[in-house]
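R.M. (postdoc): so does anyone remember the format we settled on? I'll just put the structure tokens first.
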């Protein structure tokens, strides 16, 4: 894992090369504690991936949302995040992003627009759908959640790039009522990979696009110094 902090510091990109969900979520928590270190406003973009993992929301019942025994028997991991929202499946075809900054600067609408802009850089026309979803061609490729602490605001989410959708259906328990409320009959009919729309897109491309959109959106006019890994 690489993490560079410089002084003075405004924008920081942190890229994890670990695939352990518990470690990656712990790093996210540590970044939330570091947004106002030494009186400076640090704005973090944290990019990370988990291998064969189901992450559930803060208040969810794991056994209601996930086939826990099957997941663990097949070498998968179960983790709980600090934000609300639904259960999600992570693998190495998915990229997770976390945007962390001081609470007073937290603006979900702005950070969501940043994600849309990054995806457009990849050649995919994307649109926000409500507060939590980002769609392309009418199907979801990004789910988002938010968390506030006394000092920090967090916006984190997924980018489905080349996720194994067979495993999504295999491990997640999605009720028929929830599917019907979305007007679909299966999880697969509701979601899409970015590679379905732009076959040449990969995780490295997505990381570069997110870093560029982050720098463009949040660079302060009085400081151009960034630390990008």
């Amino acid at each position: 894992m690489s993490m560079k902090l410089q002084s003075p510091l405004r924008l920081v990109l942190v890229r994890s090369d670990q695939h352990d969900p518990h470690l990656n979520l712990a790093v996210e928590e540590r970044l939330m504690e570091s947004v106002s270190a030494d009186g400076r406003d640090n704005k973090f973009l944290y990019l990370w991936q988990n291998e064969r993992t189901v992450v559930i929301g803060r208040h969810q019942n794991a056994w209601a949302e996930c086939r826990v025994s099957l997941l663990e028997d097949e070498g998968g991991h179960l983790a709980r995040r600090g934000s609300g929202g639904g259960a999600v499946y992570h693998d190495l075809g998915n990229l997770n992003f976390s945007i962390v900054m001081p609470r007073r600067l937290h603006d979900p609408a702005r950070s969501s627009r940043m994600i849309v802009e990054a995806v457009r850089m990849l050649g995919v026309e994307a649109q926000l759908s409500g507060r939590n979803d980002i769609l392309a061609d009418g199907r979801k490729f990004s789910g988002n959640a938010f968390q506030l602490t006394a000092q920090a605001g967090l916006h984190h989410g997924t980018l489905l790039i080349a996720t194994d959708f067979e495993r999504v259906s295999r491990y997640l328990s999605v009720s028929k009522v929830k599917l019907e409320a979305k007007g679909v009959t299966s999880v697969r009919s509701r979601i899409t990979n970015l590679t379905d729309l732009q076959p040449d897109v990969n995780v490295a491309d997505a990381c570069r696009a997110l870093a560029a959109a982050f720098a463009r959106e949040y660079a302060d006019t009085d400081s151009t110094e960034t630390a990008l890994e």
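R.M.: ...and that's the designed sequence above, right after the tokens. Also worth knowing: Confidence is low (pLDDT under 50) at residues 4-8, 221-229. The chain is about 30% helix and 25% strand.
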